[in-house]
Amino acid sequence: MLLPYEIREITDRILGSDKFVKSCTSSYIESLDKFxxxxxxxxxxxxxxxxxxxxxDYRLNDEYGDIDDMVYSTTDLSKF
Length: 80
What we know:
The protein is mainly α.
């Protein structure tokens, strides 16, 4: 299962790729980005919060790196 910030990072990476930039209009990319943010990232964050979990909508900073690895490490993003 991906955390909201992982979905955001993957989305940014894919929508910023040459393949998307060269073959899609900027309005389509923006529309897709907005949809993913509203329908996946925001909703998943709200669900996590309703269960008393960290929202997971951003990567913890370096100060909490060890917690970030322990709490958030669910997926190897290099696969995407």
